[in-house]
Design goal:
globular; alpha+beta; three-stranded antiparallel beta sheet; single chain; Phosphorylase Kinase, domain 1; six-stranded mixed beta sheet; 8 helices; Transferase(Phosphotransferase), domain 1
């Protein structure tokens, strides 16, 4: 694994342009290489607040750990490349490949619920292909949600933000992920470590969100407890028959009761994937994720 280049003050090499994202763990800016003119993404740790200096240093160290985890995924086309690390006005910074496209969250916003089975299968199927590669490198993303998925103009999906990612089966000491998509075992420390089933839970959440516009177990509105209904009865009744049993399997409360691998999920979706050379849906998403399978054979 190659070392990440340390460039010191990033403004010497990169022009810092517009802020394009504001997350809980960092701020995302558009940047430009002063020599080549190439666009880059700059992820900066949050500016220091009134908290102690030790907290600020910890946040900077966490950002560098994120860069190291991304380096573990070098060669996976769907994961943005880390170019360098540095500082910007005392804030630690990751310089990354800039990904053209739109967040899946925005792509879906005007199209829910998604009725076309091929479109649903194309989104979940592509994410299965990406997660299979991530999991094969022994990492768990831990923050899979539409906001962290980019749909490129050609319909190909990219997975961003490794800020919560962990090595599988290693003890975690605090909650990770985003309420609503995070699995129950992510809500607190996990002495036995998190597994790929945590990402499968989040993938099931996206499937439910696309088809019935509802996250399981009360979503972001409440901290659920075991025994909470997965969905209200009216939403449960609206689950498309093609995906109902699969979605409910993926979001089982106990990790061991979910699919063991995303390849199992993909196999259940295979018959609904758009065929190579087929026509686009009558009401496609824009950009259209089905384009990927209409022009490329499945990789799983």
């Amino acid at each position: 694994m190659r070392e990440i280049e340390e460039v010191g003050d990033v403004e010497r090499r990169y022009e810092v342009l517009d802020m394009v994202g504001d997350g809980g763990q960092g701020d995302l800016f558009l940047g430009r290489d002063r020599n080549s003119g190439q666009k880059v993404a700059l992820k900066l740790q949050k500016a220091r607040d009134l908290g102690p200096e030790s907290d600020f240093r910890w946040a900077g160290d966490e950002l560098l750990k994120e860069g190291s985890r991304m380096m573990m995924l070098t060669g996976i086309q769907a994961i943005p490349e880390v170019i360098a690390t540095g500082t910007h006005r005392r804030r630690r910074c990751l310089v990354m490949e800039f990904v053209e496209g739109h967040q899946l969250q925005k792509v879906l916003s005007a199209a829910l619920p998604v009725k076309d089975p091929g479109t649903v299968a194309a989104v979940i199927g592509q994410l299965c292909e990406i997660l299979a590669e991530v999991h094969d490198r022994n990492l768990v993303h831990c923050d899979l949600k539409p906001e962290n998925v980019i749909v490129q103009p050609d319909g190909r999906l990219r997975l961003i933000d490794m800020g919560h990612a962990v090595v599988a089966d290693q003890k975690t000491e605090y909650a990770r992920g985003t309420r609503g998509w995070a699995s129950p075992e992510q809500s607190d420390e996990c002495p036995s470590g998190l597994t790929r089933q945590a990402d499968i839970f989040a993938l099931g959440c996206i499937l439910l969100e696309m088809t019935v516009m509802r996250l399981p177990y009360g979503g972001q509105d409440e901290r659920a407890e075991e025994g909470t209904p997965v969905l209200p009865a009216d939403r449960l009744a609206k689950l498309p028959p093609e995906f109902a049993s699969l979605a409910l399997w993926m979001v089982r409360w106990k990790a061991t009761e979910r699919p063991a691998d995303v390849r199992e999920v993909f196999d259940r979706l295979r018959c609904y994937l758009p065929q190579l050379g087929s026509q686009r849906p009558s009401k496609p998403l824009r950009p259209d994720p089905t384009e990927y399978y209409r022009t490329h054979p499945p990789r799983l």
